[in-house]
Amino acid sequence: MTVTPPPATADLRPWVALVRLHARYQFLETVRVPIAVIGNLLFPGLALLFFVVPQGAITTDPLASTAAIAQLGTFAVMSACLFTHGAGVAEDRAQPFDTFVRTLPARPGPRLAGRVVNGLLWAYLALTPLVLIGVLLTSATLTVPRALGAVAMVALVAVPFTLLGMAIGYAMSTKAALAVVQCVLFPLAFAGGLFMPPEMFPGWLDAISQGLPSRAARDLVVQVTTGIEGGALALPVLLAWTAVFAALAVAAVRRDEGRRFR
C-alpha cells in the first residue's frame, strides 16, 4: 500500500504562522522605543526638506526631483535594514528572552524570516515622509508602472543590506554593533551618491563608487524611477555584494550558535 505524502503547502502553514508571530513581536518591540521609530522615519525626510527642497533648480525639475527622492529613498532603506538587523539583532541577543527562544523546538528559519519581514516593513514605512514631502514640495512625478517598479525595488535593495545588518548583529555586542552600523552606513551613503549626485564626484571617487553596493542600489533605483540609464555594472555589483554579505551573515549566525549553545 502506497501512502501519498501531504502537499507541500500543508507544511508551510505552521512555518508561516511562526514567521508572522516573530515579525509581529519584533515590530512591537521597535514601536515601544519611540525614539527609534522617529529616527527611522524622520532623518531621510529631513534631509530632503533641508538639503533638496530649498534648491529651486531641483524642485522645479521633475526629473531632478524624482532622482533626488530616489537617492534618499535608497538611503532610507539602507538605514532601516542596517539598524533593524544590525543594532536590533545585537540588542536582542543580549536579552535573556532571546536565549529562551533559541531553546524552543522551532528551527531558526521562522525567526530569521520574521526579522526580514520586520525590516522590510520599516523600510517601506521610512519612505512615507519622503513621498509626502516629494508630493507636496517638489515637482517629482511617477507613472503607475514606475511607481510599481519602485515598490519592487525596495525589496531588492533591502536584501543585501539586511544580510549585512545580520552579519553585524550576530557578530558583535550591542555597543559595537551600533557603532559599526553608523560607521558603515554613512560612508557608504556618501560614497554611493545618496546625498550628492555621482555626476558631481571627481573621477577617482566615481570609479571607487561604482564598486560599492550603495552606488549600485542607487543607480538601479534611479533608473527604475526616472528612466535615466545607470551603470552597466550596477546589477552585477549588487548581486556580488549580496553573495558576500550572505556568506558573512551565515558565518556570523553559525559562530553565534556554536559559541552560545554548544
TrEMBL record:
It is found in: Membrane. The keyword Transmembrane applies. Its main location: membrane. Keywords: Antibiotic resistance, Membrane, Transmembrane, Transmembrane helix. The keyword Zinc does not apply. It holds the Pfam family ABC2_membrane. Residues 23-222 form the ABC-2 type transporter transmembrane domain. The chain crosses the membrane at residues 30-51, 63-83, 121-142, 148-169, 176-196, 233-253. InterPro entries: ABC2_TM, ABC_2_transport, Nod_factor_ABC_transporter. It is a multi-pass membrane protein. PANTHER family: NODULATION PROTEIN J. This is ABC transporter. The lineage of its organism: Bacteria, Bacillati, Actinomycetota, Actinomycetes, Micrococcales.
